[in-house]
Amino acid sequence: AQKVTQAQTEISVVEKEDVTLDCVYETRDTTYYLFWYKQPPSGELVFLIRRNSFDEQNEISGRYSWNFQKSTSSFNFTITASQVVDSAVYFCALRGVIQGAQKLVFGQGTRLTINP
Amino acid sequence: DSGVTQTPKHLITATGQRVTLRCSPRSGDLSVYWYQQSLDQGLQFLIQYYNGEERAKGNILERFSAQQFPDLHSELNLSSLELGDSALYFCASSVGGLRELFFGEGSRLTVL
């Protein structure tokens, strides 16, 4: 079965601190994709990044960076110099092939609060 | 703006009623997905359509049904509503394969 675990339910930090959101996944598929989505207080789900199972190169986009380690089945997300606007619920998700269908399975989310 | 349009944004109704949620995917996307987000269950996959055909089913109740029309828009029908059906219902679309899903803003359903 495919599963995504985000062990951190809530994180609260002070602005400008760095923060890492953990994501651990389980899958038997050899080809799969990992994603991060952001859900700000307004409620919409915003796509942040997609990573395929064959590409373990870390990625950086501005203050955001992602660390994919296949050996530990982890896909962690770091925000550097956090800002109040980063406050949101962040979801890690996995997409592979389950019984011939390509489903996107989400973790339970991590609620990140950045305090001024 | 993801390009996925959902209506209505908010809906309040009573138990036992029936509602229809509508979704227009991004231009060119053939796949439409429905997800339910409730406080205790997180984001749950309900159903997927690809070019008008049902492709995958998740934790969708028998009281719920969906379809995708020839113009690719989709509707999620929820009937015999219960208090527990109150949730945020998301539609998402994708070009297909294992690509990312783009989500609409959601339809918040409140059942009283």
What do these coordinates show?
The complex is a heterodimer of chains A (116) and B (112). Chain A is mainly β. Chain A has no helices and twelve strands. Chain A has strands at 3-5, 10-14, 19-21, 24-26, 33-39, 46-52, 59-61, 64-69, 74-79, 88-95, 104-106, 110-115. With 112 residues, chain B is an all-beta fold. In chain B, 0% of the residues lie in helices and 54% in strands. Chain B contains no helices and eleven strands. The model of chain B has no long low-confidence stretch (mean pLDDT 94). Chains A and B meet through strand 5, strand 6 and strand 11 of A and strand 5, strand 9 and strand 10 of B.
Structural class of chain A: mainly beta
Strand content of chain B: over 45%
Averaged pLDDT of chain B: 94
Largest interface: A-B, 27 and 23 residues
What structural category characterises the helix and strand content of chain B? mainly beta
Oligomerization state of this entry? heterodimer
DSSP summary, beta strand count of chain B: 11
Broad shape of chain B = globular
Features:
heterodimer; A: about 120 residues; mainly beta; six-stranded mixed beta sheet; four-stranded antiparallel beta sheet; globular; B: about 110 residues; seven-stranded mixed beta sheet; 11 strands
Tell me briefly what this model is:
The complex is a heterodimer of chains A (116) and B (112). Chain A has 116 residues and is mostly beta strands.
Topology:
The complex is a heterodimer of chains A (116) and B (112).
Chain A: E1 3-5, E2 10-14, E3 19-21, E4 24-26, E5 33-39, E6 46-52, E7 59-61, E8 64-69, E9 74-79, E10 88-95, E11 104-106, E12 110-115
Parallel strand pairs in A: 2-12
Antiparallel strand pairs in A: 1-4, 3-9, 5-6, 5-10, 7-8, 8-9, 10-11, 10-12
Chain B: E1 5-7, E2 10-13, E3 19-24, E4 31-38, E5 42-50, E6 53-57, E7 64-68, E8 74-78, E9 87-94, E10 102-103, E11 107-111
Parallel strand pairs in B: 2-11
Antiparallel strand pairs in B: 1-3, 3-8, 4-5, 4-9, 5-6, 7-8, 9-10, 9-11
